[in-house]
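Give me the fold.
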Amino acid sequence: MASTIKDIRKETGLSLATISKYLNGGNVLPENRIKIEAAVKKLHYEANEAARSLVTKKTRTVGVIVYEIDSVFNGTLLKYIGAKLRERGYGMLICDSCQSVEIEEKNMNFLLSKNVDGIIIVPISEDEGLFEPARREDVPVVLLDRYVNNSDCDCVKIDNKASAKMAVKKLISMGHREIALIGSDAEFTGRERHKGYLEAMEEAGLDTRDEFICLGRHSIEHGFNSMKKLMSGKNRPDAVFLANYDIILGGVMALNNLQVSCPEDVSLIGFDDLIVSHVVKPSITTVVQPMKQMGEKAVELLLDRVENKNAEEPVQVVLTTRLSRGDSISEIKRK
């Protein structure tokens, strides 16, 4: 038979009120906390979350919405989010929006119907109306990786424009002048990285060719097709900035298909220091996002809203990126 709170009372000699307060997240005296934790462990006590939620109005569950669950980027974020939630005693309910604004909207309503305590989302929609149902239910939402204009949600992201600019300046510092971009105009992150590319080129006094700017959606297919187009053209770039992980993967596949060597024939710099940049030869120099810190900070902001009912203005946390050391950039000597 499962142990109950009354068994903990017998084991510790403490009142039911004190034990209940502790089990529901309240503060108790340190010596009482030690007694209760020891009894919980000894008796293998497991709280009845359904019953407790009726009293506390909390399910200790957080909803997480990602735009594509089979994305390595999203999978990595989910790993760190899940670990931090477990550390804080929360469960995680994951929803995949499948790159669809309509499905994303349904996911938001589904999670609210499950009475989640809060929601972390890597959003597709750029309409702040997406969060109106959560506002009505007083359920806090934290945006991760992507910002939505005019939203009143906390947000954890990087400075995509500055990070892209850093990447392109690295290519310029190595003597490259004919620099192409394979990026996105469909997502907030892609548009910001495009701006960083343009700004770095302009500040260096370099012209940008229309045929060297390949914009679509962050996907393997877009990376593959765009790289084939760039490398099959009359005028090849001497370097390519690959603006996200899926694009890196597609771009490298295209180079292998065409038997184009990197960095001998073309230099590469990418965005997202995930698996492929370490597996391929040469290793690819990339912009490194602080994935662990991003996931953990999103959880911290959300639970601060959930547990403390923080009424302060929305917070935007902008984390710092860096360049990895890779072998995908050749140096061009210029007089």
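The two ends are 83 Å apart (CA to CA).
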